[in-house]
Amino acid sequence: MDHAICDYEGTSYRARFWDGQGRDYEDLAERIALGRLLPPSGRRIVEIGAGFGRLADFYTGYEQVILLDYAVSGLREAQERLGTSGRFIYVAADLYQLPLAPGTCDTAVTVRVLHHVEDVPAALRGIASVLRPGGVYVLEYANKRNLKAILRYLLRRQSWSPFSPEPYEFVRLNFDFHPTWMAQELSRAGFTVDAGKAVSHFRYPFVKRIVPPKPLAAVDGLFQDVGAVWKFSPSIFLRTHTAGVGGAVDTGLFCCPTCRSLDLKPVGELLVCAGCHAAWSAADGIYDFKAPVARGNAL
User: Fold this and answer.
1) For tag attachment on the chain, is the N or C end more exposed, with fewer CB atoms within 10 Å?
2) Using alpha carbons only, how large is the chain's radius of gyration in Å?
């Protein structure tokens, strides 16, 4: 099944959505939640939808950090900020066809990603597959049942119900999710929820104009635990884990997204799959698994 992808290629996501765009409060509030939920250390972590690496400073306790995004341009920005030491691995790939071998990661992170995903169950199954037994998945999702949506619905200023469980697509490839629906899909994908935080309670322009970002985020941090009980904030963070106990597989990092073969051989600036003979670019420090550059006899 083909899935539509929200593609930020060439848009300078950092300049368009973060630098000087009035989201300092949201950035700080999200950092508070992530700092409380993320395991501080591990062998390998993958951030899916990493963009320009906004949250990469949280991963200092991990030996290897995979920053995965669909937009090569975003990974270039991350590379410029973080360097090419080898500790950071930059991967361009489709969320629905992750090019990572099963069980290779201790931890996975998605922040501001699932709201662009039209088939969340498929995405969750893919993320579960790359985690080791007992691996941790920290996720954020846009909450359909937020206070603003509830008030608008009760005042008849919007037609859709924030209480109905199905996802709501308010703009093409922009979804809000009901907490009960998300919990059910996580369970179906094999995740158990350990903890949660309600985030960005004060995401209102008039409040952000009055209160500076740092104190506003600090107050938000005070409400994140109790708010997680009611889940009325626009953003919800969860820490989940997969079943079992075990270490991350370390025999090989990548698999072919086309045929799932684990046998990929480096040939110059390519990775060539021994199973289907697809060749994937590995040039300039970025592994590009979005589309093969050659097949079979074309090599």
Assistant:
1) N
2) 20
